Amino acid sequence: VFLNPDGTVTSQTVSSWVHRDGGIRSVREEVALQNIRNVKNAAAPQLDGGVLTWDMDGNDAYYTGTSDKTPPVTAAISYKPDGEEISPQELAGKS
């Protein structure tokens, strides 16, 4: 999850690993991701109606994708140099 200085979400990247002894052939997985990319080799999965299908050599597939779903966690960020709370904009350039 990538955040703005105030803690609001800017984007989310999901990393996933699929393992199957005997090869990744016709392995189907429901996903809610966009921009899916295999990070280990050039084999590309097929995405149809939210179902990702792998058909490749090897026992492992490592991939990333982006999500627009609400993350399962939230972040509250505050900036308190010298004990006084300031905004992210006020913090810029301070040391």
Task: Tell me what you see in this structure.
With 95 residues, this protein is mainly β. It has one domain (2-88). The chain is built from 1 helix and 8 strands, in the order E-E-E-E-E-E-E-E-H. The protein has one helix at 88-91, and strands spanning 2-3, 9-11, 13-19, 24-30, 34-38, 46-48, 51-56, 60-66. The strands form 3 sheets. The protein has a 3-stranded antiparallel beta sheet with strand order 3-8-5, with no helix packed on it. The chain has a 3-stranded antiparallel beta sheet with strand order 4-7-6, with no helix packed on it. A hairpin with a 5-residue loop joins strand 1 (2-3) and strand 2 (9-11). It is elongated. The model has no long low-confidence stretch (mean pLDDT 91).
Short description:
The chain is mainly β. It is 4% helix and 42% strand.
List the defining traits of the structure above.
3-stranded antiparallel sheet; mainly beta; single chain; 95 residues; 8 strands
Alpha-beta content class: mainly beta
Low-confidence stretches: none
| Main sheet characteristics | 3 strands, antiparallel
The overall average pLDDT, rounded, is 91
Order the strands across the largest sheet as they lie in space.
3-8-5
Q: Could you tell me how far the N terminus lies from the C terminus, measured between alpha carbons in angstroms? A: 26 Å
The SSE order reads EEEEEEEEH
Proportion of beta-strand residues: 35-45%
Rg over CA atoms, rounded to whole Å, is: 19 Å
Tell me roughly what share of residues is in helical segments: under 10%
The geometry reads as elongated
How many beta-strand runs? 8
The helix count comes to: 1
Question: What count of structural domains?
Answer: 1
